[in-house]
Amino acid sequence: MKTLILFYSFSGSTKKLASQKAAETGADIEEIIETKKMFVLKAYTVGAYRAMKRNKTEIHPIKSQLNSYEKIIIMAPVWAGNPAPAFNSIVEQLPSGKKVELVMVSAGGGTKDSAEGTKNLITAHGCEVTDYTDIKTLVKK
Residue 130 maps to which CATH number? Predict the structure, then answer.
């Protein structure tokens, strides 16, 4: 099954995990980059608020031809219990009919309160959620 990993990483943790997953599975990989990178303080305040409201952010165009993949894995950090705003921008570009696996990465450990709403965003675009995983990362000291 031809698979693409789309990921957004703010601090580098999600990027590391996405690269490992691509190496393990042989999937293609593409990093999603915001057109204006937020500073840490803004990410923890404005970014977290936007995540809770499920707002989008402006991202550079996705280069991969999404229609040529049978499965798309989306990996994103969790801010205030919800996927970061870049995740919402990725979802908006999904072609219908795709199998989508979601991987949410956080130091806090989960998205139990927002998981159903996140899955609903995917199904609203005519896609099927095949798996949903929360990954707790170690906090760097």
Answer: 3.40.50.360
